[in-house]
Amino acid sequence: MENKVILADLFYLPPIEFFVVVQDFDELRLEAHDNYQKQTYRNRSLVRLANKVETLSIPVVGGNKKVKYSKIKIDYHQKWKNVHLRGIKSAYGKAPFFEYFFPYFEDVFQKEVDNLFDFNLELLTLCLKLLKFKTRITLTSNYTNKPTGVDLRSKIVAKEAFESREIYYPSPYHQLFGSDFVPNLSIIDLLFCEGPLAKEVIARSKKNN
Predict the structure, then answer these.
(1) What pTM does this model have?
(2) Considering the domain boundaries, does residue 121 fall inside one?
(3) So which domain of life are we looking at (predicted)?
(4) Given the DSSP bridges, would you call strands 5-8 and 136-139 parallel, antiparallel or unpaired?
(5) For a surface tag, which of 22, 127, 139, 170 has the fewest beta carbons within 10 Å of its beta carbon?
(6) Is residue 64 part of a domain?
(7) Domain hosting residue 171, numbered range
(8) How far, in Å, are 14, 97, 181, 183 from residue 163 at the CA level?
(9) Number of domains forming the structure of the chain
(10) 3-state secondary structure string, 4-16?
């Protein structure tokens, strides 16, 4: 049987759209040899608070220079970790599956991981496990413009609306705040709100279904 491979960028607690694509593949090959890019999902994630959508952003060292993503260091001089944990608790503390899933994420946050890439990789591995995806993660050995499999790199862009891409058709689920459904938040929004049903919501959210 053919091994279905998708090549993608590594994000911080990725949006649901990312998992809508990944669900159909046996292997998720993460690009480990490109340069870091600012204002992307590499260091930011979206969660829903009572009155707004909040961006959780990880500060980094040297993000303005041409530095390999895998070499970018997290700036621990800023107290971002406490801000993010408080933000997640504030957003989802009363969600049905918060008490079940949050300790797994908290364990990762409590580690002092130097590199942003390594930190995001650990969180993504956890997300796939909690979703019960069988997709395995591998890393690229070099950078290529002609990869095998599907190339998702630079396709999911934070500064563009998801509607501009032929990937994700929102399947609404119960969220904690407000009467209007907010699509394509971080995967933790879906996990904390829907728990074991998260995988089914993702399956329903494929645009060409």
Answers:
(1) 0.95
(2) yes
(3) Bacteria
(4) unpaired
(5) 139
(6) yes
(7) 5-204
(8) 17, 29, 15, 10
(9) 1
(10) CEEEECCCCCCEH
